[in-house]
Write a structure and sequence with these properties.
The chain is an alpha/beta fold. It contains three helices and nine strands; from the N terminus they run βαβαβββαββββ. It has one domain: Rossmann fold (3-Layer(aba) Sandwich). The structure holds inosinic acid (IMP) and magnesium ion (MG).
Length: 183
């Protein structure tokens, strides 16, 4: 079977190639490793969009680490945030006293991360920082301090490399703009 090719879908346009993503993750990994020394880092991947970024970023950071997942839903079904954030899966272990690194796919309005920081800070980690593959600064409604940003992108809806539209396109290797009627 042929691999998913964005070119076969006229609504998809490559914004960031898988090669560029790989190179940037190597850089981010080196920076994070330099900042955290030997760790341990408690990596928290926000499901589902960040699973691919987490997998590559974790392998680019040669520190002791633990990996956990948290499920947050804020989007409902379309392309715009519902503004309501819901915890759908909690962490498996305590983060008290841990150096937490939240791994996100994209920071858009900032509503999800504002909520998440509030929830996690109450659990008394030693430190807490955010790494995101993508940042859409033009869309921000809540200020969020992001320590590690892969790419700043314009205000366009993107899919691929973990990001979805209606649960599709997560398996694309590149980050692509999806030009389609809004959902
Ligand atoms: P925020 O709360 O508006 O910052 O939204 C963050 C979440 O919305 C991300 O973790 C994504 O899951 C989703 N999201 C925001 N923009 C996009 C996009 O362009 N494509 C796919 N998902 C997006
Ligand atoms: Mg997400």
């Amino acid at each position: 079977m042929a691999e998913p090719a964005p070119s076969s879908n006229p609504n998809l346009r490559v914004l960031i190639s898988s090669d560029a993503i790989g190179r940037r993750i190597t850089e981010l990994g080196a920076r994070i490793a330099a900042d955290y020394g030997d760790g341990p880092i408690h990596m928290i991947s926000i499901l589902k969009g960040s699973f691919m970024f987490l997998a590559d970023l974790a392998r680019a950071i040669p520190c002791r680490m633990q990996i956990d997942f948290m499920g947050i839903s804020s989007y409902g079904k379309g392309k715009a945030s519902s503004g309501e954030v819901k915890l759908t899966k909690d962490l498996d272990v305590s983060i008290e006293g841990a150096h937490v690194l939240i791994v996100e796919d994209i920071v858009d309005s900032g509503i999800t991360l504002t909520y998440l920081m509030h929830v996690l800070e109450q659990r008394h980690p030693k430190s807490i920082r955010i790494a995101t593959l993508l940042d859409k600064p033009e869309r921000r409604q809540r200020p969020v301090h992001v320590s590690y940003v892969g790419f700043q992108i314009p205000d366009e809806f993107v899919v691929g490399y973990g990001l979805d539209y209606l649960e599709e396109y997560r398996n694309l290797k590149d980050v692509c703009v999806l030009d389609e009627p809004c959902g």
